[in-house]
Amino acid sequence: MDGCRGVLAVVVAVALGMATIAAPASAAIVGTEQMLSPSAARNQVEAFIARADVQQKLQDWGIDPADAQRRVAALTESELQGLAARIDELPAGAGALEVIGVVFLVLLILELVGVINVFTAI
Amino acid sequence: MAPPPRRWRAPGLLMVALMIGACAGPETLRLRAESVPVELAAVPFHPQDEYHCGPAALATVLAADGVDVSPEALVPEIYVPARQGSLQAEIIAAVRRRARVPFVLAPHIDAALAELHAGRPVLVLQNLGTRGLPVWHYAVVVGFDPRQQRFVLRSGRERRLEMSARRFLQSWDRAGRWMLVVARPDAPPVSAEVQSWLRAVAAFESLGELKIAITAYRAATRRWPAVPMTWTALGNGLAQRGLWASAARAYERALTSGGDTPWLRNNHAWVLAQMGCRADALAEIDAALTAAVEPAQRDTLRDTRARIETLQPDAVCDR
């Protein structure tokens, strides 16, 4: 329920934000993006919901609402739909530092079960 | 340590053989055929703190293209605290915010080598873990030494990390072979294919950054003048800025170079109508309707036709 309310709030916020963007002067012009990917027939409603979903997700992940709004505004509709579909599975490049920890842990386990013998000094 | 029991050896050897087999693929062979070393020593270095490898790597490639931004300034744009990392789509968006074209390279190591030799560092996503237990990491490739078969990276806290080609290719392959370069709108990267460049630029157009889109489309017409889609795209950018006459010229160039599609005719028709050439515009949209078969496309074309009909019929055509 809370999640629903959150999404709803974001939908409203996005709608208010979009309302301030002027409609393109040449509405009859078909954009290059649509020409290049004919399969991605733009569904305005889907794109709109994707934007709200991604913004909500970013907020859930600890990004403040104003930043989250700015961040989704910089993404195209196709990028947003790609994100909305599988944002949880997508890689988020982190740091090489934690690798050291993982490697140490693996070595330690291998050592303890007797597969390797690198910590001879221990 | 005692040798493992005999019955384990065969599968073990087989596994090793498979792993080697998987690595001596076309990419490895390609690297072995390389003979000229390259290292972009001047590429600056931003050591990462904690999980900020995305901001650090991005600041590095941006700086190499003349955009001065600190990793800290990029954190609020691309860092996701709960994921302790950065998403590829947000890195792309952050490049666009700085008026540079984020260009994702073709998934072949050739593309990276070509960019390095042209002086462009390459941001890569690596998976330093396994497929099942991924450890994602962003780094910047700045060089390759063919004699040692080693890549040189700006990575984490290491200004000059050397990584064997084998390990690097594995980590890159496990991360979906994602590589990105940063380009000025007027200079498509050497390895760019026309379609991928236009796609990368089209995002600016969709987001209303028309000046950048036009510059980048114009660069495409210079590099690939025989490809009609470059002229069509340029026309689209110009038309959306209301620069009707130049848009019409670009569309006409697309048509004469064999780019006849219903969408092109649709846009050309609208531009002609805006120039007061109503009869020409109607002829053009009817030509589009004759060629179009897809229902959704026909709907759009009919919509354009209806809009053209509502325009002033007695306007002066200044073609």
Automatic annotation (TrEMBL), chain A:
TM spans (from-to): 99-119
Presence of keyword Transmembrane helix: yes
Entry-linked Pfam families: DUF6627
Highest taxon, organism lineage: Bacteria
Keywords: Membrane, Signal, Transmembrane, Transmembrane helix
Cleaved signal peptide residues: 1-27
KW Protease (keyword) present: no
Record-given protein name: PA2779 family protein
Species this protein is from: Sinimarinibacterium thermocellulolyticum
From TrEMBL, chain B:
Domain of life per record: Bacteria
PROSITE patterns with a match to the protein in the record: PROKAR_LIPOPROTEIN
Domain Peptidase C39-like as annotated: residue spans: 43-152
Annotated InterPro entries: Peptidase_C39-like, Peptidase_C39_single_dom, TPR-like_helical_dom_sf
NCBIfam families given in the database record: C39_PA2778_fam
Name under which the protein is recorded: PA2778 family cysteine peptidase
Protein source organism: Sinimarinibacterium thermocellulolyticum
Taxonomic placement: Bacteria, Pseudomonadati, Pseudomonadota, Gammaproteobacteria, Nevskiales
